[in-house]
Amino acid sequence: MENLKIIGSDEWCVFKKLGIPAIKARVDSGAKTSSIHASNIEIFSKDGVDWVRFEVDPIQDDSSILIKCEAKLLRSKMIKSSMGASEERLMIRTALTLGEDTYLIKLTLASRDTMNYRMLLGREALNKRYLINPVEQCLLGKLTQEEVLQKYSQFSK
Questions:
Q1: Retropepsin-like aspartic endopeptidase domain: from which residue to which, for each copy (predicted)?
Q2: Could you report the per-residue pLDDT of 86-116, keeping only the tens digit for each?
């Protein structure tokens, strides 16, 4: 248990391989799997392997930024929501950068339009790495709205 970093109830995440320089995630130890807001999800074949193409609008209440992503499809998975409803979601594995750490996580693709956060960071991604201080936010680094928009300046419509 030693050497675990402390994170807040939300943190800024980076997905370099997906081209996402900053997305604020809600840290949720009640959720097993991490999830990212995705739309226009489409499965396609690349060299005989299933891949998935999708779009992420990473900033809540700002649809002017749209990132087109592609990743190898890991599998589809039945997910039970906090309301108890089950739905099938596509899952990818990709590198997450959280603070100074980069490691692979599983990520389901879901519509999070009605949620306050574009991403949910579940316990599989946190396990044996972090402790959560639920009263703090962005302990691994804060970004101002201007800094976030600067990171996305090349993507604005």
A1: 6-137
A2: 888 899 999 999 999 999 999 999 888 778 8
Secondary structure (DSSP) of 44-62: EEETTEEEEEEEE--STT-
- Phi and psi at residue 88, to the nearest 5°: -85, 130
Percent of the chain with pLDDT over 90: 71
Asked if residue 157 has pLDDT above 60, the reply is no
Sign of the dihedral through C-alpha 145, 147, 148, 154: positive
Largest CA distance in the chain: 47
Q: Where are the extended beta strands (E) located within 3-129?
A: 5-7, 10-15, 20-27, 34-37, 39-46, 49-56, 67-80, 86-98, 101-110, 119-121
Place of tokens 């099938």: 88
